[in-house]
Design brief:
Structural Genomics Hypothetical 15.5 Kd Protein In mrcA-pckA Intergenic Region, Chain A, S4_RNA-bd, 9-stranded mixed sheet, EC 5.4.99.-, alpha+beta, 15 strands, Alpha-Beta Plaits, Pseudouridine synthase, 4-stranded antiparallel sheet
């Protein structure tokens, strides 16, 4: 088993983050620091540690996923140096070891999934799995049909004030113009992606709400509340990412 998969399955970090841990020299196998991202481990014999902490693979653990309705004004982090309220402040201690699936920025609200399954987390967030996310977007002026088409065609979201920034194209797979707002469907989760897309076409966002993630719907779950996914919802989620 590749080292990044082992770390992911242990629930310590996603595969992408695991690669960074290896590159930073923080991962040891049987007491020896490794640097090869493709290093193979024997899950029945080898001992893997990160910063000296022994990782263990789950044994017959039943995966859990919860959905949370993130309010605007709380941050997706475990500890905030500025002392702001975090998403974990809304969850009981029993869920504090769960990892959130794709962050929402400070002022964005809506559906946020949490899981204790590292492999599921990896598949739900890695761009290669093209997991759809739907957002309701309210802008200061109505989004035109031509602007919606530009979002589907792809727009450059690099920082216009950074002369050294490289071209970065982002696009929506679908845009639906509703009465007073637009629904955008994306298959990537770049940092502040929708806000940067709207800025690129000259629109300002008043409100942004994620309403679904990989076919899981937020529904009428109140802001600040959470619930575990039903077995049917969990099966649908796992099937969508080929688990």
């Amino acid at each position: 088993m590749r080292i990044n998969k082992y770390i992911s399955l242990s629930g310590f970090a996603s595969r992408r983050a695991a690669d960074e841990l290896v590159a930073d020299g923080r991962v040891q196998v049987n007491g020896e620091t490794i640097s090869d991202l493709g290093h193979q481990v024997d899950e029945t014999k080898d001992q893997v540690t990160v910063d000296g902490k022994l990782l263990k693979l789950p044994t017959n653990k039943k995966t859990k996923v919860i959905m949370f309705h993130k309010p605007a004004g709380c941050v997706c982090t475990k500890d905030d140096p500025q002392g702001r309220r975090t998403v974990y402040d809304y969850l009981p201690p029993g869920y504090h070891n769960f990892k959130y699936v794709g962050r929402l920025d400070l002022q964005s609200r809506g559906l946020l999934l949490f899981t204790d399954d590292g492999e599921l987390l990896y598949r739900l967030t890695h761009p290669s799995f093209e997991v759809p996310r739907s957002y309701y977007v309210w802008t200061t002026r109505p989004l035109s049909e031509s602007a919606a088409q530009r979002l589907v065609d792809g727009v450059d979201i690099r920082d216009p004030e950074d002369p050294d920034a490289q071209e970065e194209i982002a696009f929506a797979t679908d845009v639906y113009l509703e009465n007073g707002f637009a629904e955008l469907v994306l298959i990537e989760g770049k940092n502040r992606e929708i806000r940067r897309m709207m800025r690129a076409i000259g629109y300002e966002i008043r409100d942004l709400k994620r309403v679904s993630y990989c076919q899981i719907q937020l529904g009428d779950l109140p802001a600040g509340e959470f619930r575990e996914l039903t077995p049917n919802e969990l099966n649908k989620l796992r099937q969508a990412v080929h688990l």
